[in-house]
């Protein structure tokens, strides 16, 4: 039985609309963004109305479906959506599935619905499998937002935490604020509060201090792309946490559906998105740095498998880099 949790992506069959929780408005307002065509979907991805690798992929698939329904140029829609963001592999995976369906005279909408349903099942399975790594009484650190808002339901890292909570484990969660867009402070804390899971927010630079004090038992994060050697691309700051966890002998887990795995690319092939420096220089429209000062704003970093305790997938937990079950 599916629990009453956040559903960030809704397809409205009656009106042929994609309905998205507008994550730019959280946590203060729960509002929805209506997509009537693929351009609306492209804007939603670029402007982070919707974000998180699986959610981006699902939304892009529905964007292709809208192009099909409206009689738009499918190739044009494909390339427009493909160029919205460069790092999360689910975007390209979902768009390629939709193009394959179209080229084989199958319904793009049916394919989009299938992608959506597969993600729901994968997220649920990740939670059911992953909760076993959490012990009663654990305090878990997570980074950015790998929850329902980043997927179709439950989330990846937060699915593991949710299912531990559902099964009666007494847990607490510490959330990195995750500068510069504060997805941890704004989104993850919102989800955990919604579920009634005890949560506290810390600045990104506090994690090491808490680890040193023995206040963190596990670290669980999501992923935007996982390569063949299980190198993980995820929100900037993930690599730093992995290094800190390794030093302090704290288990560090990545939760990721197999749709986020990329067995074709090498590290050099992956483009690390560099977003507008204004995201760093301004907070809520107010400049916090002196005029004339520039900023780096890399959205993702790279964590090698040697720093990772295990990768939790819907097919099981990968503890060894020679584990090939995901590749088959």
Automatic annotation (TrEMBL):
<feature type="binding site">
    <location>
        <begin position="234"/>
        <end position="235"/>
    </location>
    <ligand>
        <name>substrate</name>
    </ligand>
</feature>
<protein>
    <recommendedName>
        <fullName>Putative methylthioribose-1-phosphate isomerase</fullName>
        <ecNumber>5.3.1.23</ecNumber>
    </recommendedName>
</protein>
<comment type="similarity">
    <text>Belongs to the EIF-2B alpha/beta/delta subunits family. MtnA subfamily.</text>
</comment>
<dbReference type="Pfam" id="PF01008">
    <property type="entry name" value="IF-2B"/>
</dbReference>
<feature type="binding site">
    <location>
        <position position="85"/>
    </location>
    <ligand>
        <name>substrate</name>
    </ligand>
</feature>
<feature type="site" description="Transition state stabilizer">
    <location>
        <position position="144"/>
    </location>
</feature>
<comment type="function">
    <text>Catalyzes the interconversion of methylthioribose-1-phosphate (MTR-1-P) into methylthioribulose-1-phosphate (MTRu-1-P).</text>
</comment>
<keyword id="KW-0413">Isomerase</keyword>
<feature type="binding site">
    <location>
        <begin position="51"/>
        <end position="53"/>
    </location>
    <ligand>
        <name>substrate</name>
    </ligand>
</feature>
<dbReference type="InterPro" id="IPR027363">
    <property type="entry name" value="M1Pi_N"/>
</dbReference>
<dbReference type="InterPro" id="IPR005251">
    <property type="entry name" value="IF-M1Pi"/>
</dbReference>
<dbReference type="GO" id="GO:0046523">
    <property type="term" value="F:S-methyl-5-thioribose-1-phosphate isomerase activity"/>
</dbReference>
<dbReference type="InterPro" id="IPR042529">
    <property type="entry name" value="IF_2B-like_C"/>
</dbReference>
<feature type="binding site">
    <location>
        <position position="183"/>
    </location>
    <ligand>
        <name>substrate</name>
    </ligand>
</feature>
<keyword id="KW-0486">Methionine biosynthesis</keyword>
<dbReference type="InterPro" id="IPR037171">
    <property type="entry name" value="NagB/RpiA_transferase-like"/>
</dbReference>
<dbReference type="InterPro" id="IPR011559">
    <property type="entry name" value="Initiation_fac_2B_a/b/d"/>
</dbReference>
<keyword id="KW-0028">Amino-acid biosynthesis</keyword>
<dbReference type="GO" id="GO:0019509">
    <property type="term" value="P:L-methionine salvage from methylthioadenosine"/>
</dbReference>
<feature type="active site" description="Proton donor">
    <location>
        <position position="224"/>
    </location>
</feature>
<dbReference type="InterPro" id="IPR000649">
    <property type="entry name" value="IF-2B-related"/>
</dbReference>
């Amino acid at each position: 039985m599916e629990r009453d949790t956040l559903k960030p992506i809704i397809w409205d069959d009656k009106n042929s609309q994609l309905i998205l929780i507008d994550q730019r408005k959280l946590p203060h307002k729960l509002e929805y963004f209506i997509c009537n065509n693929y351009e609306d979907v492209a804007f939603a991805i670029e402007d982070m109305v919707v974000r998180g690798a699986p959610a981006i992929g699902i939304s892009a698939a529905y964007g292709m479906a809208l192009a099909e329904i409206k009689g738009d140029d499918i190739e044009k829609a494909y390339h427009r959506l493909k160029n919205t963001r460069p790092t999360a592999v689910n975007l390209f995976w979902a768009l390629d599935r939709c193009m394959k369906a179209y080229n084989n005279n199958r319904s793009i909408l049916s394919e989009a619905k299938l992608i959506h349903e597969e993600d729901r099942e994968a997220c649920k399975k990740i939670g059911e499998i992953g909760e076993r790594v959490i012990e009663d009484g654990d305090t878990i650190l997570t980074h950015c937002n790998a929850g329902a808002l980043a997927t179709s339901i439950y989330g990846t890292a937060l699915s593991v935490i949710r299912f531990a909570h559902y099964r009666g484990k007494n847990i607490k969660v510490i959330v990195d604020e995750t500068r510069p867009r504060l997805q941890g402070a704004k989104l993850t804390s919102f989800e955990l509060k919604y579920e009634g899971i005890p949560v506290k927010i810390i600045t990104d630079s506090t994690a090491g201090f808490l680890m040193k004090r023995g206040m963190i038992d596990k670290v669980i994060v999501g992923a935007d792309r996982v390569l063949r050697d299980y190198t993980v691309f995820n929100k900037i700051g993930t690599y730093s946490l992995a290094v800190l966890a390794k030093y302090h002998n704290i288990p560090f887990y990545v939760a990721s559906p197999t749709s986020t795995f990329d067995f074709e690319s090498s590290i050099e092939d992956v483009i690390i998105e560099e977003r507008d420096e204004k995201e760093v220089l301004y907070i809520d429209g107010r400049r916090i740095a002196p005029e004339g000062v520039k900023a780096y704003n890399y959205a993702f970093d790279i964590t090698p498998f040697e720093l990772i305790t295990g990768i939790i997938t819907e097919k099981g937990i990968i503890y060894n880099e020679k584990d090939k079950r995901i590749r088959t």
